[in-house]
Design goal:
Order of helices and strands: HHHHHHHHH
Helix content: over 70%
CATH superfamily: lambda repressor-like DNA-binding domains
Mean pLDDT: 81
CATH topology: 434 Repressor (Amino-terminal Domain)
Number of strands: 0
Number of helices: 9
Strand content: under 5%
Largest sheet: none
Distance between the termini: 72 Å
CATH architecture: Orthogonal Bundle
CATH class: Mainly Alpha
């Protein structure tokens, strides 16, 4: 008899819990015995943890297992807002380190979302990213390069 296993995609929650606890992935690996590469895959939803690993992670981060398994991020606007406000607070403090950190967070969130959806969802995300890249991002880059050349 085959046992059904839930595919828990905990990336967003894991990242938030690590930030709240001021803990690195390496430290979490040391506390849980879970390989750091595996934890990194959990962070971007490239791999789904077993319930046993979620229990180890929850214990190390002082969270309930439900924090990682109930998918509150997509259901709870307050959680989404909290994560987004943290990211944009860094953007408002416009120095190179904060801007790079915000960029890293955005890339992480894109990876988490991309790895969480179906093939059709992945296609839709790629189409959206392509549109943003070919309009807004290229325009910003072109405008800055044009200003540099005109000096």
């Amino acid at each position: 008899m085959r046992i059904e296993r839930n595919n828990y995609q905990i990336g967003i929650y894991l990242e938030k819990a690590l930030t709240d606890k001021n803990m690195s992935v390496k430290q979490l690996s040391d506390c849980t015995g879970i390989n750091i590469r595996l934890l990194s895959k959990y962070l971007i939803n490239e791999q789904c943890p077993s319930l046993t690993n979620i229990q180890k992670i929850a214990k190390a981060l002082d969270k309930d297992v439900e924090y990682f398994t109930k998918d509150a991020y997509y259901k709870d606007i307050l959680v989404r807002t909290d994560i987004n406000e943290e990211m944009f607070a860094r953007i408002d403090k416009a120095n190179d380190q904060n801007i790079r950190q915000s960029y890293k967070v955005i890339n992480h969130m894109i990876n988490q979302s991309f790895n969480s959806v179906s093939l059709n969802g992945k296609k839709a995300i790629l189409e959206s990213l392509y549109h943003v890249m070919t309009t807004d991002i290229y325009k910003t880059t072109f405008n800055e390069k044009s200003k540099e050349e005109s000096k």
